[in-house]
């Protein structure tokens, strides 16, 4: 066997071993960091009365599913699967409105398309490309607030999702400031934050997983394993927020 063949064989063996490690890796959802600060009364009401629920995932490439091997493995697709398992008697649809490369300014231009879906909940991932491009956090904040105001004016519940804990994002100078800004917005508008960054940080430092388990080789996007695990954690967080909502809890025995 020549040197090139040996090198290729070794590379394929390494990739196969890595894929096996990821497939067999246990998923820890860490509810202590992903619990939403606010409940979801609209979803709770629909859950109690068995009404259809529609969720729109609005964001950029990590919502669209960059790094996943197929569309069934992105987080909106996986979230629908997890929620249907959690609520098997309900009709639940999760619509993927993620577009790679977009900033919140770009997403603003698509809000009418989002509203046309008549969602009960929007999971809004608005900030990663602002961080990656070192753009103005203040300008992004103004657009995020405008988008939220338009969503809430239509009676739509909103959750904000912060950035991903991967090497290509956490090294950017505006990353921490952008997360703090989302927290401030969430507090002002009583919107839950799904703290994806903190969840993934737990995978790295508490579960002692190498970045290669939950990060795509481009060091920016997630992979099949992390999209699946994130979706499990997000479904659990949504279910918990529904159970804590006044409409739901008032009807519990």
Explained architecture:
The protein has 15 helices and five strands. With 253 residues, it is of the alpha/beta class. It has one domain: Rossmann fold (3-Layer(aba) Sandwich), CATH 3.40.50. The protein has a five-stranded parallel beta sheet, with helices on both faces. Helix 5 packs across helix 14. The longest helix is centred in the N-terminal third of the chain and has 22 residues. It is globular, with a radius of gyration of 19 Å.
What would the average pLDDT be, to the nearest integer? 91
By CATH, the superfamily comes out as SGNH hydrolase
Rg over alpha carbons = 19 Å
**Class derived from helix and strand content:** alpha/beta
* Approximate strand percentage: 5-15%
CATH topology: Rossmann fold
Give the topology, please.
Blueprint: H1 3-24, H2 31-34, H3 41-48, E1 53-59, H4 61-64, H5 75-86, E2 92-98, H6 104-108, H7 111-115, E3 121-124, H8 128-132, H9 137-153, E4 157-161, H10 167-170, H11 175-189, E5 192-194, H12 196-205, H13 211-214, H14 224-243, H15 246-249
Parallel strand pairs: 1-2, 1-3, 3-4, 4-5
């Amino acid at each position: 066997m020549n040197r090139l063949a040996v090198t290729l064989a070794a590379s394929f063996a390494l990739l196969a071993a890595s894929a096996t490690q990821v497939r067999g890796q246990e998923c820890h959802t860490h509810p202590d960091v992903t619990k939403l600060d606010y409940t979801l009364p609209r979803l709770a009401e629909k859950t109690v009365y068995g009404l259809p629920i529609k969720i729109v995932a609005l964001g950029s490439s990590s919502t669209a599913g960059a790094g996943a091997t197929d569309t069934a493995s992105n987080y909106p697709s996986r979230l629908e699967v997890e929620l249907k398992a959690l609520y098997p008697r309900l009709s639940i649809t999760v619509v993927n409105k993620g577009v790679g490369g977009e900033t919140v300014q770009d997403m603003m231009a698509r809000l009418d398309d989002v509203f046309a879906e008549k969602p009960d909940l929007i999971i809004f991932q608005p900030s990663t490309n602002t961080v990656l491009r070192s753009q103005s956090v203040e300008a992004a904040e103004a657009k995020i607030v405008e988008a939220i105001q338009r969503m809430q004016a239509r009676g739509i519940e909103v959750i904000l999702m912060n950035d991903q804990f991967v090497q290509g994002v956490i090294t950017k100078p505006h990353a921490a400031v952008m997360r703090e800004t989302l927290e401030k917005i969430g507090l002002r508008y009583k919107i839950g934050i799904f703290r994806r960054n903190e969840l993934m940080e737990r995978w790295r430092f508490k579960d002692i997983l190498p970045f290669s388990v939950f990060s795509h080789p481009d060091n920016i996007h997630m992979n099949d394993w992390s999209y699946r695990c994130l979706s499990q954690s997000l479904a659990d967080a949504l279910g918990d927020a529904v159970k804590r909502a006044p409409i739901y809890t008032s009807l519990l025995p």
